Amino acid sequence: MSKLIKVVNLEDGMPTVEQARVRLKSELDIARKNGVGVLKIVHGYGSSGVGGELRIALQATLRQMTDRGEVRACIYGENWRKADESAWALLKQSPELKEDRDLGRGNRGITLIVL
Fold it and tell me: What pLDDT is stored for residue 111 in this prediction?
């Protein structure tokens, strides 16, 4: 992977689910064009009443994109730990990600997307 990780806060500005989906797809296109290997999105987890909706909807969208082969994999924040099989495979491929501040924290407000 050339540029390892890009972080995008999709919760910023309290968007609707549809606005967040549009921005997600746009950010994925930009990341691909720039050679980013992993896009980490911040969608929140519901503490403000908004993140929960975004989290559920965006993760459903990402599951569909993974199934269609549009993204290689998604690792939800609660699974972003060395003990998770998918996370460990990514960490072995890109050991620099071990420096990510969310690794092992069970942060349900983020999702990592492997491009």
Answer: 97
